Amino acid sequence: MKLTETPFADGDNCRTIEVAVVENRCRCHKHHHQSINTDEDDSLSMFLQSREDDHGRIHRDGDDEHLFIPPFNFAMVDNGVFRSGFPDVANFSFLQSLGLRSIICLCPEPYPEANMQFLKSNGIKLYQFGIEGYKEPFVNIPDDMIREALKVVLDVKNHPVLIHCNRGKHRTGCLVGCMRKLQKWCLSSIFDEYQRFAAAKARISDQRFIELFDISSFKHLPLSFSCSKR
Hints:
Elements lengths: L2 E2 L13 E2 L1 E2 L6 E2 L12 H7 L25 E4 L2 E4 L7 H7 L3 E4 L7 H9 L3 E4 L14 H12 L6 E4 L5 H13 L4 H12 L5 H9 L18
Parallel strand pairs: 1-4, 2-5, 6-9, 7-8, 7-9
Antiparallel strand pairs: 1-3, 5-6
Helix pairs in contact: 4-5, 5-6, 5-7
GO molecular function, one term: inositol-1,5-bisdiphosphate-2,3,4,6-tetrakisphosphate 5-diphosphatase activity
Enzyme class: hydrolase
Protein name: diphosphoinositol-polyphosphate diphosphatase
């Protein structure tokens, strides 16, 4: 079974949009630059295309010409679930277009004041789980925090939801990887997705954590938002 997603450049200055296309339960992945494709729900693609003119410029209703800039490592994970690196002021218009209800931040530092103002003005709830960004071999991924964050992701009342850490690679990759286990993805596909976001920074310890993560306590929860359940 296949998962097709757009690839991203691994440079810090390149922001791309990557969207998963889920056809069946065990996925393979391939991708291309700055495109949005999903078999289950093309609403995000249609939304952005409707604001793009012949010159590739994006317009916002009722405004002058406006360019939407997604956060670094941004992608659609599933219906109503997105992931990215830490968003900044330049990304606010793009995030506003997603109609977010909540944001999950996996960083321990205080949330920036500008970001808090953006959340307040748009009625977005912040869930912060302070996971330290250690480097190998001193990586310590707190199982309890990942579980609590996963509960927020699984609750459709929080959708649309954006998951982010600093670079959208390790902590975000672990949380998304654990969600994929609940969606019955095979490990090779889970690791492939993780590695494409982490690139040269991929960690064996993160992948080991995902592999050993026990999902038995979540099996009573419905995955009503999941493409794999449709």
